Prior knowledge:
Elements: H1 4-14, H2 30-34, H3 38-56, H4 62-65, E1 67-74, E2 80-87, H5 93-102, H6 104-114, E3 122-130
Parallel strand pairs: 2-3
Antiparallel strand pairs: 1-2
Amino acid sequence: MTSRKEWLKEVASLCEEIRPEDGIAPRKSSHANTQRHRKTYQVCKQAEKTLNMVMAGDSVEPVLRDLIVSAVEPNPDSSHLLVIVESSVLLDEHEVLSALLRAKGRLRAAIATAINRKRAPLISFLFTGGKAGVA
């Protein structure tokens, strides 16, 4: 049986450097707290699919038909979603954001019907402009 000092030397040689979080259970570490919950990502994916379908339909403004929802992220959690929108053509950012704000109620209602939650999440928008290489 090896002594404790020999064991510590062996462990130290296995890693490049010892950090303060070494030896702490993963569920108690700060890294576990920063990981987002699987259900939150499910809601974001459902919202992304729903918004892409609704914005491609005829019931929205013509400006919104040129937009693609590239991502939906929790901001800071699933009760408020950040919708990241980009365009395949060159559009004015102010015009796009004002059209999104006018359609915000309809888009939030569409998300509410698509997901199974007690309360529909609040949504905010971020327009990233056109795709690179597309004019």
